[in-house]
Specification:
2 domains, single chain, globular, 10 helices, kinase activity, binds adenosine-5'-triphosphate, Rossmann fold, kinase, 322 residues, ATP-binding, transferase
């Protein structure tokens, strides 16, 4: 018995697989090859669409949807948070809610971790093949009306220090691949923290949560969170949970390097950083974050152009075969 042996999946279902073969330093390719083998064994038809460049999945999903039979076919995404993000973003541009199956094969896989997807992709595939009803998954929409910046987030949108970390990581691509190959995902991020700290800048933030406005100065990070994780399993906001009809804003205020190390130690061990005077958390359904100057900004681990954003966030959802 290998988890694929029941006959309950629909034989007519054809799978459209969108895959980033490079995700997780080659894990994507391994998962695709195994899935290919399994689907062939089960005589389940599929088409494979490989992403060929950054952001390709945004347009690819639109082509897939235009060509698929919406009654019988299913979408399967194989890759990391970035690839899933792009698929959901591409779909939200079409304003269509077509369910997707997802096999995490990335470096961080924070979204999969947050919603407890199986770590074994064999189990994940078996679940998807047998899923009868798609499940609703919360995500968020962000918009800066003036800058005409709009998008979707599954994990987090962070401004300031965490944007800087992603910027540094993007410039150290090789190092990131080496570390992820030896499964040190958290180290990849922690490794860049000292570097980002040296180059940090602090800023002022105006935050509105369900119509209540507060201001903060000397801010290091201001972010919107859909669930607890950042950077490959770093539980930065332990009080956030997915699918609670709520989003959180997390503010980390400026602190000395020794205090940053103390805060990080708590993040990685007890989670007691939430009681620190440097950490603030607010939660609600509609959020706004307005920064006082352009700061590095990331959404789901991908950089946005550095601008002085005034973002409005609201809850949204997509459908997942799980
Ligand atoms: N063929 C390709 N060549 C270069 N970049 C690609 C290619 N296909 C996808 N990408 C880009 O690679 C980035 C990362 O992809 P993905 O999230 O799937 O993997 P990961 O970074 O290993 O995982 P995670 O985001 O979970 O850490 C995304 O921005 C995506 O657009």
């Amino acid at each position: 018995m290998n988890g694929y042996d029941t006959k309950e999946y629909k034989m007519t279902t054809r799978y459209h697989i969108i895959a980033n073969l490079h995700s997780g330093s080659g894990k994507g390719k391994k998962v695709v090859l195994d899935v290919h083998k399994k689907l062939n064994e089960k005589k389940i038809p599929f088409l494979l669409y490989q992403t060929e460049y950054r952001k390709h999945a945004i347009t690819l999903i639109q082509k897939v949807i235009a060509n698929m039979n919406l009654e019988t076919d299913r979408i399967l995404v194989i890759g990391g948070d970035g690839t899933l993000h792009e698929v959901i973003a591409g779909m939200s541009l079409l304003e269509k809610k077509i369910p997707v199956g997802y096999l995490p094969a990335g470096t961080g896989n924070d979204f999969a971790r947050a919603i407890d997807l199986p770590t074994s992709y064999h189990k994940g595939l078996a679940n998807i093949l047998h899923a009868e009803e798609p499940q609703i998954m919360e995500c968020f929409l962000y918009e800066d009306a003036e800058l005409k910046t709009i998008g979707v987030g599954l994990n987090s949108l962070g401004m300031g220090f965490d944007g800087k970390i992603i910027e540094i990581l993007d410039n150290k691509h090789t190092k990131r691949n080496i570390l992820s190959a030896v499964r040190l995902e958290k180290l990849i991020y922690l490794n860049s923290i000292a570097d980002a700290f040296k180059k940090r800048k602090t800023f002022e933030v105006e935050v509105t949560v369900d119509n209540k406005t507060s201001t903060y100065s000397d801010v290091l990070i201001a972010g919107a969170m859909n669930h607890p994780y950042f950077g490959g399993g770093i539980k930065i906001d332990p009080e956030s949970n997915p699918n609670t009809s709520e989003l959180a804003i997390m503010i980390i205020k400026n602190l000395s390097f020794p205090n940053l190390v103390r805060l990080l130690t708590k993040v990685l061990t007890s989670g007691k950083h939430i009681h620190s005077p440097y950490f603030e958390r607010l939660a609600g359904k509609e959020l706004e974050i307005k920064v006082s100057e352009p700061v590095p900004t990331q959404v789901d681990g991908e950089l946005l152009p550095e601008e002085q954003y005034h973002f409005h966030f609201k809850l949204s959802a997509f459908l997942l075969w799980k």
